Amino acid sequence: MIPDGSRAPKVPAADAALRILSHLATLRGPAPAASIASALDLPRSTVYHLLATLVEHGYVLHLPEERRYGLGVAAFELSSGFSRQQPLARLGAPLVAGLVDAAGESGHLAVLHGRDVLYLVEERAPRRPSLVSDVGVRLPAHLTATGRAMLAALPAPQVRALYPDASAFAPGAADGEASAWHLRRLRTVLAEVREHGYAAEDGEVTAGLGSVGVAVLDHTGWPAAAIAVTFPADRVGDARRDALIGEVDRAATELSRRIRGIGHRAAPSAGTLA
């Protein structure tokens, strides 16, 4: 037990490991061990040993072909653990409620959890069907609007590490053998998300329902969460869809501001609901 007012004794290895994780979290992509050692002023041998331990426990991913290291799935689990302890949900819940009031469609807030999205907030609009994306539910990130919005904000090597081969992809509701998922298809989808400023899916989670989502970026540009609305696809024309995108974009921008994030490029086709 540490007495009040006293400092905890420093554990050099633990301190260095946490510094490595914190440093990787500030980068836009995986980095070589030598550059990590240089940036932190640590001996290379120490960095290599600590990286090997962090890789073993899943907190760091090693990309052998590139000789680089990036954050692993266990690090994402720590991030989503923070989210599950309510800060993001508490900040986002009133924004999602306001979004649902303005849009008249069901809304939700989700975070990335490895290759899944984990739903933290779910607000059902009046006279709209129940959704599978209830609080605590996980769905494959590449199939959902929230997941695509967040994946599009990740560095390409991080996406490749999350989806190393076709076995990493779950099939969508609208997928057949001819439309199986693979990394090239995902890259095409994510490029469209970055181009348009929002993500969309149409019947890939639930037949007949579509969604649009926008990422919430933190101060480093990392996707802390995403906000989306889901609607009956056959009842929403282009003009109303653009207006829904605008409402989602505004909610995501406000949540990013509340967590002192950097915001994002506004969706170019965003409109206003009458």
Automatic annotation (TrEMBL):
Pfam families membership: HTH_IclR (PF09339), IclR_C (PF01614)
Top-rank taxon, per record: Bacteria
Ranges where the HTH iclR-type domain occurs: 11-73
Chain ranges of the IclR-ED domain: 74-261
GO molecular function, one term: DNA-binding transcription factor activity
Transcription found in the keyword field: yes
Gene Ontology biological process: glycerol metabolic process; negative regulation of DNA-templated transcription
Keyword Kinase: no
Entry-linked InterPro entries: GAF-like_dom_sf, HTH_MetabolicPath_Reg, Tscrpt_reg_IclR_C, Tscrpt_reg_IclR_N, WH-like_DNA-bd_sf, WH_DNA-bd_sf
Xref: SUPFAM superfamilies: GAF domain-like (SSF55781), Winged helix' DNA-binding domain (SSF46785)
Function statement: May be an activator protein for the gylABX operon.
Designated name of the protein: Glycerol operon regulatory protein
Organism of this sequence: Agromyces rhizosphaerae
